[in-house]
Amino acid sequence: MLVLGLLVRLGRQVLAGPVANSGVLPASFYRHLVLAALEEEDFPGALEYLKWAGDPLLAQIVVLRLRLLAGRHRRQLQAVQDLLGTDLPAPRRQQYQALQRATTRALELLQDYEARALSDLARPGSAAGCD
Amino acid sequence: MAKPDLSLTGALVGGMAGWVAEVAIQEVTGHHITTGLLELVGAAAGLWRLDRRLAQALQDTLEQARTDQGQDYQEVKRRIAELTEDLPELRDILANMVDAGISAQRA
In sequence order, which residues have a C-beta less than 8 Å from that of residue B83 and are 6 or more positions away? Predict the structure, then answer.
């Protein structure tokens, strides 16, 4: 009984981990994972499974979400840069400079994610799921 | 029907052995069994309502665009068209959704 329990556990583990990450499960499973990641705004997570989701519409949603988020960051960066152009006390200036660096870094990451999503979209066969 | 024989010691030993196996598998494969199982259960529950979730994702995307551009549907439509120039399928769907919003606003 114990051996059977261990075998079942091992089987589940193999299915949930390495098998899911190898892209052999049905495309609808990966669509679910991408949607779940999108709901949490977890873009790296969404991109991880997007290549196996086989759904161009889903990839387009990810791209648009990334562009909308990047737009918000660009507006924030512009506002911070405007503030840095004014006369500010040194501690406040340092805070805005740190925010500027963080926002710039976030924008770079978002651009990288967008490029990855677009490459998934352009990949031959991305329109064909394996349901 | 015979009453099932339950053994507390057996359960403890089984649980302990399972835990040891879980830790061993985690060490070898680098994956968490519990996390993986929860993912599978979540996926199974989520699969049957995939279409609804996709529609919700579209709705959320439109909502985010509206948050950025205010409540003016025409402005939202223009902005979405701008951002989805290379995403034709999504552009058409969202344009239809915005048109429906405009119609509802006028009604």
Answer: A64, A67, A68, A71, B65
> Are B61 and B74 in the same domain?
yes
Contact between A63 and A34 (Cβ < 8 Å): no
pTM: 0.69
Range of the domain at B71: 50-106
Task: Find the residue in B nearest to A38 (Cα).
Answer: B57
- Please give the tally of structural domains in chain B: 2
- The reply to whether residue A35 touches residue B57, judged by beta carbons under 8 angstroms, is yes
pLDDT in tens, A32-82: 889 989 999 999 999 999 989 888 999 999 999 999 999 999 999 999 999
- Which residue of B14, B17, B37 is in closest CB contact with A16? B37
Question: Measured between alpha carbons, how far is B87 from B77 in angstroms, rounded to an integer?
Answer: 14
CA nearest neighbour of A113 among A27, A22, A34: A34
Interface test with B, best of A3, A64, A67, A110 (most B CBs within 10 A): A64
Q: Which CATH number fits domain A27-122: 1.25.40, 2.50.20, 1.20.58, 1.20.1630?
A: 1.20.58
- Closest partner residue to B58 among A36, A61, A118, by Cβ? A61
Per residue in A72-127, pLDDT tens?
999 999 999 999 999 889 999 999 999 999 999 999 999 999 999 999 888 766 64
- Minimal Cα distance from B92: which residue of A? A57
